[in-house]
Amino acid sequence: MYSDIFNMIRKHNEMMRNSIPLIASENLTSELVRKCYLADFGHRYAEGKVGERYYAGCKFIDEVEALAIDLTKKLFDAEHVNLQPISGVVANLAAFYALTNPGDIVFSISVPCGGHISHDKISAAGLRGLRVVYYPFDVETMNLDLKATEKLAKDVKPKLFILGSSLMLFRQPVKEITEIAEKIDAKVMFDASHVLGLIAGKVFPNPLKEGADVLTASTHKTFFGPQRALIMSKESLAKKIDRAVFPGVISNHHLHSLAGYAIAVMEMIEFGEEYARQVVRNAKTLAGALYDRGYKVLGEKFGFTETHQIAIDVRAFGGGDPVSRKLEAVGIVLNKNLLPWDPVENTANPSGIRIGVQEVTRLGMKEEEMIAIAEFIDLALKEKKSVEELRKAISEFRKDFQTVKFTFEECDAYSAL
Predict the structure, then answer these.
(1) Is residue 69 in a domain?
(2) % pLDDT > 90, the chain
(3) Contact of 250 with 337, CB cutoff 8 Å
(4) Could you tell me if 108 and 177 are in contact, meaning their C-beta atoms sit under 8 angstroms apart?
(5) 417 is a domain residue
(6) Which helix (H) or strand (E) holds 105?
(7) 54, 48 in Cβ contact below 8 A?
(8) 45 and 81: one domain?
(9) What is the pLDDT, as a whole number, of residue 338?
(10) 47-73 b/e with 16+ CB inside 10 Å = b?
(11) What whole-number distance in Å separates Cα of residue 283 and Cα of residue 166?
């Protein structure tokens, strides 16, 4: 019965209302963004560019998309914007079609070193027929080894350098990679899915201003948007990008979430800088508090993190899988994660966990709450309190943080059906 579905949704909402959400790839949308989900836009098609649609009835859809493009250009100082990809992987696939040919060599970060699966041969890059070569990676700095990268690039001559990561603690050397790429007539693409909101909030460098040719991103991690994506590029690549998106990998592009995205950009323009600064402060505070409690937090020598993310080696507690399960049992939701020394096959129980603080930041949490979260994690993993005691304490802790902040109209984070 349909009522069963709504009951499951209610149970999910209640679970999240009483948990601490630390998944690094998730965030909350405001009520204004959510209202767009219910618009008639969600029933319609708008294939093609603004003003050049293949269906009638798109007058107001055109107005929304044109406004969203203009706002995005303003926010990121971008030459060209395409807002039609419906996910980050779709955006990456379109970029690969625009920038490469089958058989081309591309440089990407391996999955254990933080690279996203779509940058690898088993996903979108492989579907395009690309030959993936991994960057030399410095585990101590959790970043690329530039000298080794330049030497390798001279030898194998990649056509595309892919930057941006699924696990990204620190700024990546975009300018330096761009200089290497220019010497061998290659392009640079930056997948900013995880840091788009931090770029908008001016606490993380804009890769387009550092020389990247193309920036792809999903719009729902550190950004305030619904689940969709975008591509920004130099104007010289606009036609290639647009053709790769439509008719290449997209027909219709989910117009209700496009309208929600437009609202999210407005929220980012208004509140993004304050929010992004708090995200980074929170991440650093939580990382430091966990380190002080004896946890192996990566990036110690470099301040642990410059983003919303924290990575912890939890092999001493049995690995990422049992740790994530133990934390979920008490109401702390995060993910197990490969770390650079893990074999790629070790996905069932990798060495690490990954924490993201963007969602709790949007719920209004600050440094004081990060210290409390570190204590909850410590109590759970060292079994200093029972599961029942911790679940009750975490539910009580969450009572003061049920409202989405950094928006024009604050709202209940988990509106019940």
Answers:
(1) yes
(2) 97
(3) no
(4) no
(5) no
(6) strand 105-108
(7) yes
(8) yes
(9) 97
(10) bbebeebeeeebeebeebbeebbebbe
(11) 16
Tokens 């700095």 belong to residue: 141
CB atoms closer than 10 angstroms to residue 375: 15
Q: Where does a domain end: 231, 265, 299? A: 265
SS3 354: strand
pLDDT, tens digit, 9 for 90 and up, residues 44-81: 999 999 999 999 999 999 999 999 999 999 999 999 99
HSE, CB side, 13 Å, CA atoms: give it for residue 28. Answer: 29
Q: Are 340 and 325 in contact (CB under 8 A)?
A: no
User: What length does the chain have?
Assistant: 417
Distance in angstroms (rounded) separating the CA atoms of residues 328 and 326: 6
* Sheet strands (E) in 7-98: 20-21, 48-49, 52-53, 80-82
Question: Is the pTM here over 0.90, yes or no?
Answer: yes
- pLDDT at residue number 397: 98
Specify the number of domains making up the chain.
Answer: 2
Rounded-to-integer distance, Cα 247 and Cα 239, Å: 12
pLDDT tens by residue, 301-356? 999 999 999 999 999 999 999 999 999 999 999 999 999 999 988 899 999 999 99
Contacts of 8 (CB under 8 A, 6+ apart): none
Which three-class secondary structure state does DSSP give residue 230?
A: strand
Q: ∠ at Cα 240 (238, 241), nearest 5°?
A: 65
Q: Which domain range does residue 134 map to?
A: 31-265
Residues near 7 by Cβ (< 8 Å), separated by ≥ 6? Answer: none
